[in-house]
Structure formats: structure tokens, C-alpha cells
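Structure ticket #2291
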Amino acid sequence: MCKISIIVPVYKVEKYINRCINSILNQRFKDFELILVNDGSPDNCGKICDDYATKDKRIRVIHKNNEGVSSARNSGLDIAKGEYIGFVDSDDYIHPNMYDILYDTIVDYKADIAFCDYEMVDNKSIEKYEIPKMLNIKKFNNVEALNEMHKENGVKFVIAWNKLYHKNIFKNIRYPYGKIHEDEFVIHKVLFNSKNTVYINCPLYYYYQNEEGITKGKFTLKNFDAAYAYKDRMKFFKEIRNINLYNKAQYTFVLNFFNCYKKGFNLLNIDNTHIKIYKKLFASELLYLLKCPLFNFKEKCLWVLFCINSNLYNKYLQLKGEIL
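Resolution: structure written out below.
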């Protein structure tokens, strides 16, 4: 058994995959296996992965039909041998000390999850490898971490790839098939399962802004997947009877839903069929949302209008200049 299993879903990243793999193989921490999941990539990625596997015995390659990031991650989780789990996206790359620091931190603090900050990079970015001598480390229990997740800068708590997880976190958790925003569907369960989560305020992960990426590109109706993820989150917090987190999840659901609705209306000319689907999604939560203390009376009246007469609601948005 190795200490860490690093799972990398691979799809249409022929230009970037070498940089990603090399950044992992060049880690100061050596006791890991690298699981490359070729998710039916139509380019030369599969061969590149196989070539690396012949050169380094720590590398295992899975070749499968294209089913998306969630399926690829799940395939890696199913065969992972490590005591700890990490994810890296195949167009990104990581600091040479990333897993060394995460592993030492997770062990020293007896944590279930250790995670670091990240830096957004592009083709013009200059790599920065300086690490402060004294790392700023913060500890959170599960409820504290879930509260931090809902703050304005809480995205670092949500994303999967800046973290090192104890394998038991994923014992009964897998990513949802066929969805984008896959991290949003599972993070509330992941953080809830972690009794001790540790954050290192240092950017050790480099998130490449690739315009061709799934979640890094243009808006599509698939962006509504996030609303379904937040609905699942509301259900989860209701089941564990945490009203504070439940209200925060409601707030996130509403903001995301209407943001997607307005963007979809302007960019995609949402038809009546889709409007009915999204109205049904929102209406299923309306009675509970009306009790949420984080919204005012006017906002709640507009929700009711949307559910009763979406055409009239759309005219209101047009008068406000929020949709075309």
C-alpha cells in the first residue's frame, strides 16, 4: 500500500497533459501512486498516459468510454490503494512540495482533510515556487468547515483538487454521473464526514484558465446542474437538523437558480419546455424558501410571481433590464 493515490481524469488535454503529469512525478513526496483515467479522449492522451506508465511503476492507467469527470474520478477511487486520496485536473499543475506539505499537515494535525490555496494561471503566467518559512494553518471541525464553505471566498472549501483526503471520507461517497459542478454535489457530505479539516494559506495548486474546459467555458443549460446540487445540499442539512446551514444552502440555491435563469434567458433564449422544468424545480422548494430569514418580503413575493406566472415575472425582469 502507498501513502497517497493521486487521481487524474484525462480528456482532450494533449497540449497540457505532459505538464500536469510531470508536476506530479516531480513531487518531493514520493510514496504515491498516480492513477491516470483516460476518459475516452479522442486525441493522443491515451498513448501519452501509457508511455508514462512504462517509465514509472507508480503509474496506473485506466482506459474507459467517455462518461465525464465524475465517472473518471469514481473509476480512480474504485481502484485506489492509498491511505489518502488526491485529485488533479489534467490541464492544471501543482507545486513540487504540494503533497509533501499536505501529507505532513494531515498527519501532524490528525486531520481527515488538509487543503491549500490555489492560483489561477494562464499561458503568460510565471511560475511561483516560493513558500513562506512559517505556514499559516487553520483548523475547522465539520460544522465550522461547512459554514466557511458558504462564505464569499468559500470556493476553496468546495473544489476537489486542492485537497488531500483520508480514504475513509469517500467510503460511501461517489461523484454524480453526467453532471457538471460535480464538486457541489458531494462537498457537503465530504466536509461533514471530516471531523478535523486543516487549511494551509499557501497557493500550491495552479488552476489553468483553459477556455476549452468544461466549467471554464461558456454558459449552457448544464449550468443548472448546480441548482440541483444545492437542492440536494438543502435536503442533507435538513436531515442532519442544522437550521443555520439549511438556511445558508437555501440562500445559495436561490441566488444560483435565478442567476442561471437570467443568463440562460439572455444567452440561450430558454424555451417554454425548459422554463416549465426550472419552474418545477424551484416550486418544489417554495414553501420552505418562504420561511427562510435570509430574504426579504419583496424577494419572496417575486418568487411566488415566478411560480404562478413566469411570463409576468419575465416582463418584470425586462423592465429592470435584467433580461433582454
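Closing remark: The CA atoms of residues 150 and 248 lie 7 Å apart.
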